[in-house]
Structures are given as C-alpha cells and as structure tokens.
C-alpha cells in the first residue's frame, strides 16, 4: 500500500494546468473506476483524484467480479486496476473487461520492478502502467494522458457511429414524427442488450427495424441472424434453433450447430414468434432465462451470449388467453416493445416513398426513370394499404412496368389497375394525328373524350367526392354535376372501399 508523501497532497502535487472538461474539450463529466483489493488505498486514491481531476467522478471497487458487473452496466472513460488481487488476477480481469468494452482505456498498477508484467499488460490491451509505490503527480500524468486518449477514441467512435447510423436509417424512408420516433427508439435500444419484441402488421418493416437495432449495436461486427419460425417444419425447427448431436434421432448422422450457437456474440431475430409451437416455447424460455444451450441429444449445457429480438404481427395476448402462447415466454420476450407503423399511420411519407421506390425500381429494372405526379401521390395517400410498404413496393413495380408515360397520372394508374375502362388522352388525340373525320365532328369527339378522361381522373383522385372534384377543376358543384349527368357518371363508381372515406 502506498502512503502519500506530504508533497503529493492535494493542492501541491501538479503544476501543469488542471484537467478540465473545457481544456481538452471533454464531455461534462468523465468516470474513472479504480479496482484494487486494498480498501485503504482505494479510498485514498478516490479522495485525491476526485480533488485533483476536475469534472471527473471517481468510483472504487475492491472485488473484481463486482467491477465486471459495474462495467457491464455503464461506460467508464478510464479504468485503473491492480495486477495482484486474490479473487482474480488483474491480467485476466483486463481481458474480461475488454470483452465487455473493447474501447475503454485501462491503466495497470504493477509491482515495482516487474517490467515483464507491465509489458504483458500492454500486450493484452492496457494503455499504460504505473509501478507501485507511485508518486501522485506521476499517476495524474498517466491518467490525464489516458483520459485524452479516451476522448480521441470516443470522438472517433462517435463519428463512425454517426456514419453507420446514417447508413442504417437510409434503408428506412420516412420523415413523419411517427417514423422519427421509431428511429429514436431503435437507437436507444441498440445500445442495450434487452430482448425486444417488434410488433406491427405485415410489411411494416419489422425485420428492417431488427437489422437496424443490430447494426447500431456493439454486436454489429458479427453477422445478423434471422429465422422465420413458421417457414420451418416443427420437427426441424428445434434442431435449427438449438442444434443436435450425432445420433440424437434417426437420421442425425453428424453434429449440427443450431442458430443460437451460430449467433453467439451476435443478434438473432425470431421472426413470426407467434407461430412457434408450444412444445418449443418451453425450451426457448429456458434458453432465454439461463442463457445456456443444450443441443438435442447433448449431455452438457453451453453458455451463450446471444441478443434475442422477436417479431410478430399476431395478437399474442389473445394467443395467451387461448393457451397457444406461453405467458411467461411473452413477458421474457417483451422486455421492450417496438411498434412499426402501418402505411396508413405514415401516409404523409407516401410521396417520399413513391419517389424513392420509383428511383430504386427503375434502376433495378434498367428502365428510364418515371415519377408519380402530385395528383397521383395525393390519390395514393388516400388509399388503404393493407399490405403496407410491401404492397406499395409491388404497386410501384407494376406501375413502372405497365405504364408507358414518364409522369404517372391517376388515369394511368386507373388504366393499369382496370385496363380498358378509361380512354387515355393520347388515345383521344390520335384522331387529330390522322384526320379522317370532318373538323367539327373530330373536335367534338376529342373534347368529349378529354372531358370524360379529365372528370374521371378527378373523381378517381377524390374518391368520388363531387365538391372536391369541382373545387380542383375550378367549376361550381352544379356545373360538375351537369357534366357528370351528361357523361352518365355515378360517383359511387369511383369510390373504392379499400381507400379511405372522404
Ligand atoms: N420505412 C421504410 N422505408 C423503406 N422501406 C421499407 C420501410 N419499411 C419497410 N420497408 C421495406 O418493406 C419491405 C417489408 O419490410 P419487412 O420485411 O421488414 O417487413 P415485416 O414487417 O418484417 O413484414 P412481414 O411481417 O410480412 O415479414 C422490405 O423490403 C423493407 O425493406
């Protein structure tokens, strides 16, 4: 144990400018953890360092296992640890800490003269070392350097995270407050290890959300794993998830590594968890509770470190009441819920989505770019999209393939969806290109077709609403009704029950 020499008491020990958050552009408060089994030494260091290091909180812990628990719960900017501790060798502790936080700056306290130990500590990832007994000014110098290094590393990581975040959320389109809330939730959850239940209708981006949670997490260096539970027959699903040993059942000729083991260190999405058979739910619950896995036919359990995400579009509460889903599994999975919004809830994002999807699919299909007119976007915002973004994607693909025009208007949509019901304007104008009729008759025919096409488009856009159609056309309601009567048009024919009520 060291005793502080008189000259190293607070206020007298270091003449370099005090370390402040401002002087090295640090975050407001930094946290140092000191790990040493000598309690007097810990308390002494805590007192001195708290006094000397401005904007730094110094925590102390005498037990290495408790230290590991603390480190897994919060970030420390710097850890100062002793090499010799009875419960756990400081070298092993250093390696365990690295596994939890690969970027933390660690400084070892080694016995005087044991230079091999110091070298070994640095080889294993320590940033620097101080030899005991040390002078406080020397320790402060090393700590300051360590804090500065940490600051640089964290800034670098933050920059990298910002780039990753941008790329991650680039696969999401949407700027409505609802989507922004979803991004915030994903971001907040990514930094935790919580099991997350992602709920939402089909095609709302549940898998996309799961991937984003993984891509923004510390596990992102590992590949993301996903299994679509109902896609795998019940007899195979157990092996697929938990693996099996050779001879576990007829046909098990070799050992098979299950997804839980493959995904060790990474993230596993159990897609459509509502469809997992009850028999497997019990085993899944055990794995989640114990973080241990025993393959089929195996005799030994293995510790695993897998972050589980589960997704469903089903009413799990109803399944629980029908006893087809275990309530305890539900609570184990549902530590936090993320909800992906329906397309109807983010209808204001539809123009953005149309723009993005038409660019994306035009490129994929290698066809010239096309875009949706404002009137089309407005019309599509009024529709119901029971299949959500996936349905919108299919719709855009269909339109790009079948619509010949560069600007997609409501009438083109109508023509693709109900071929033959609306004459296109280009069809109407073909008469002018090939004048086979007297002028007055040809003009009336074109006008007639123009008016029919124009009003039909309007009514289609407004879902058969006469007042809105009249307003958009700059006509009175009466004039609009008159045209409709003349053309024998019924508003009901333009109302699509799948679209929103007016
Ligand atoms: N906000 C969004 N922006 C852009 N594309 C999206 C968005 N949400 C979903 N998608 C796309 O829609 C498609 C369906 O998404 P995803 O598979 O994640 O949905 P899901 O909810 O998991 O569907 P299901 O329950 O049917 O499996 C994917 O191609 C995905 O990239």
TrEMBL record:
Q: The Response regulatory domain covers which part of the protein?
A: 31-147
Question: Sorted alphabetically, which keywords does the UniProt record give?
Answer: ATP-binding, Nucleotide-binding, Phosphoprotein, Transcription, Transcription regulation
Question: Does the record carry Cell membrane as a key word?
Answer: no
Under Gene Ontology molecular function, one entry of this record is: ATP binding
Domain (Sigma-54 factor interaction) spans 172-401
Residues with the 4-aspartylphosphate modification: 82
Q: Which InterPro entries match?
A: AAA+_ATPase, AAA_lid_NorR, CheY-like_superfamily, Homeodomain-like_sf, P-loop_NTPase, Sig_transdc_resp-reg_receiver, Sigma_54_int, Sigma_54_int_dom_CS
Question: Its domain of life?
Answer: Bacteria
CDD domains associated with the record: AAA
Please verify whether the record's keywords include Phosphoprotein. Answer: yes
Q: What GO biological process, any one, is recorded here?
A: phosphorelay signal transduction system
UniProt protein name: Response regulator receiver domain-containing protein
């Amino acid at each position: 144990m060291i005793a502080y020499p008189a000259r190293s008491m607070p206020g007298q020990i270091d003449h370099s400018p005090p370390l402040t958050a401002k002087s090295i552009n640090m975050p407001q408060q930094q946290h140092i953890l000191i790990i040493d089994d000598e309690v007097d030494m810990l308390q002494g260091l805590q007192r001195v360092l708290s006094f000397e290091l401005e904007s730094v909180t110094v925590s102390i812990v005498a037990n290495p296992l408790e230290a590991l628990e603390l480190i897994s719960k919060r970030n420390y900017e710097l850890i100062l640890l002793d090499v010799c501790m009875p419960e756990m060798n400081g070298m092993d502790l250093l390696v365990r800490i690295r596994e939890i936080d690969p970027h933390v700056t660690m400084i070892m306290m080694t016995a005087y003269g044991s230079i091999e130990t110091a070298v070994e500590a640095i080889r294993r990832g320590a940033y620097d070392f101080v030899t005991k007994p040390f002078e406080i000014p020397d320790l402060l110098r090393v700590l300051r350097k360590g804090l500065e290094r940490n600051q640089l590393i964290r800034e670098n990581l933050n920059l990298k995270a910002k780039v990753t975040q941008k790329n991650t959320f680039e696969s999401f389109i949407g700027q409505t407050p609802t989507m922004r809330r979803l991004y915030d939730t994903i971001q907040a959850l990514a930094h935790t290890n919580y099991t997350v239940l992602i709920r939402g209708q089909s095609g709302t981006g549940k898998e996309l959300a799961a991937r984003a949670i993984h891509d923004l997490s510390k596990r992102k260096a590992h590949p993301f794993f996903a299994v679509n539970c109902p896609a795998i027959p019940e007899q195979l699903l157990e092996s697929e998830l938990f693996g099996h040993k050779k001879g576990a059942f007829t046909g098990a000729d070799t050992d098979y590594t299950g997804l839980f083991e493959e995904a060790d260190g990474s993230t596993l999405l159990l897609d459509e968890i509502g469809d997992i058979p009850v028999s497997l739910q019990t085993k899944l619950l055990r794995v989640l509770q114990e973080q241990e896995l025993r393959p089929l036919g195996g005799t030994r359990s293995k510790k695993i470190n897998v972050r589980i995400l589960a997704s469903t579009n089903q009413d799990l509460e109803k399944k629980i009441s029908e006893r087809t889903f275990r309530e305890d599994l539900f609570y184990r999975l549902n530590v936090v819920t993320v909800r992906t919004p329906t397309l109807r809830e983010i209808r204001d994002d539809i123009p953005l989505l149309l723009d993005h999807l038409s660019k994306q699919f035009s490129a994929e299909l290698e066809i010239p770019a096309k875009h949706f007119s404002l009137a089309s976007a407005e019309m599509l915002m009024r529709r119901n999209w029971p299949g959500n973004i996936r349905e919108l994607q299919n719709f855009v693909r269909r339109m790009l393939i079948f619509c010949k025009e560069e600007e997609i208007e409501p009438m083109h949509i109508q023509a693709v969806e109900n071929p033959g019901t609306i004459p296109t304007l280009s069809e109407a104008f073909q008469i002018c290109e090939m004048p086979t009729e007297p002028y007055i008759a040809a003009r009336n025919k074109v006008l007639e077709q123009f008016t029919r096409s124009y009003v039909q488009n309007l009514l289609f856009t407004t879902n058969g609403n006469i007042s809105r159609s009249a307003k958009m056309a700059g006509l009175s309601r009466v004039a609009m009704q008159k045209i409709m009567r003349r053309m024998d048009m019924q508003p009901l024919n333009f109302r699509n029950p799948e679209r929103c009520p007016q």
